[in-house]
Amino acid sequence: MSTILPFAHFSTKDLPANLQFEAWREQPYAFEVSPAEDEWPKSFAAEVDVYVFGSALMLRARQGAQRYAISPDRARTKGRNIFLFTCYERGAYRGCAGADEINGEAGDIQVLDLSQTMNTIETSSIMTGIAISHDNLREKLGTLDKLHGLDLRQTAGAFLSDYLQLLLRRLPTMSEREASAMADATIDVIAACVRPTQERMLPIAAQVQSVLIVRAEKLVERYIQEPQLSPAFLCKQLGVSRRTLYRAFEERGGVHDYILERRLAAVAAKVTAPGETRSISELAELYGFTTSETFWRAFKRRYGVTPGEFRAVGHLHHAGPSSSAIASLFKQWTNGTSA
């Protein structure tokens, strides 16, 4: 992968099967890695990408079932004054952090202090993690008590999970200067999620809005066929006020128009899909339009042609290039631009 930032990739894919787990456990982890079962695995599929950005380190890993541990001797090793925040996209874990039992599953955020003992077993998983030094986090939180083994769930965990996914997608194209500023902003986000206060939330307003938009977009796609999909429904699912949601979508013409546009786009894709035999009315109803009149008017306003005309042009297009198809598409485009 090409990236401006310091980057490393490791995979067991091209190694002999009997050497895969040994190669994986020899990577420079803070943990002691061992098999999940008593027997040594005959093969082990795993890969990890690691980025260094500013004062933070970020990783994304796909890995088989295994055990992680930090023994008392390893915990006392210098240079382990680091917190690791991991979000599990898939998989689950159980064990202990210090004297406390911990467990989690997909969607949870696990917080581990790598200067303290822990022992967990986890299933095959996909996870995203970010490492922050004690000093950088202490500067924001003051005290670091009761963080080891903390599991962020529900609102804070969901927000931080979405934020990390968004950050991971942007890292490959960031300059070092941008990444340094983003690392500072990320520490602010983590501090606000771990111990939310009004004072801590103010500096991360832009990040909150970006993540809110991403989460809202995911919900719209997930519930695109449901009649109850509406601004009020999104507010309830996201746990935000109508004012907050509307402000986030101001630059997109408003949240109501965004939902309508996505529904119309879904119907448009279906009506021109090869082999699609359902009527336009059926497809409109499938994507949440409760009346044909409302759908017809919205579609004509958005695309400049009726749904029937749009389907006819689409079928010509899928049938292959021809002068008549090109003429029809050009007419559709000119109607749309003049509408």
Shape: elongated
Give unreliable regions as ranges: 315-334
Cα distance, first to last residue?
44 Å
Corresponding CATH architecture of the largest domain = Sandwich
Query: What string gives the helices and strands in order?
Result: EHEEEEHEEEEEEHEHHHHHHHHHHH
Supply the helix-strand structural class: alpha+beta
The profile of the biggest β sheet is:
7 strands, antiparallel
Helical content (DSSP H or I, runs of 4+): 40-55%
Mean pLDDT: 82
Domains counted in the coordinates: how many?
Answer: 2
CATH homologous superfamily classification of the largest domain: Jelly Rolls
CATH topology of the largest domain: Jelly Rolls
Rg over alpha carbons: 25 Å
Number of strands: 12
| Tally of individual helices | 14
Estimated share of beta-strand residues: 15-25%
Strand order of the largest sheet: 1-3-4-11-6-9-12
CATH class (first level) name of the largest domain: Mainly Beta
What does this structure look like?
It contains 14 helices and 12 strands. It is an alpha+beta fold and 339 residues long. Strand 3 (46-53) and strand 4 form a beta hairpin. Residues 315-334 have low confidence and may be disordered.
Q: What is this structure, in a nutshell?
A:
This protein has 339 residues and is α+β, with helices and mostly antiparallel strands.
SSE blueprint and pairings:
Blueprint lengths: L6 E5 L8 H6 L6 E4 L10 E8 L2 E8 L2 E5 L1 H4 L6 E9 L1 E6 L2 E6 L3 E5 L4 E5 L2 E9 H8 L9 E2 L1 H17 L5 H19 L3 H4 L3 H18 L8 H8 L3 H7 L6 H17 L8 H7 L5 H12 L3 H13 L3 H16 L1
Helix pairs in contact: 4-5, 4-7, 10-11, 13-14
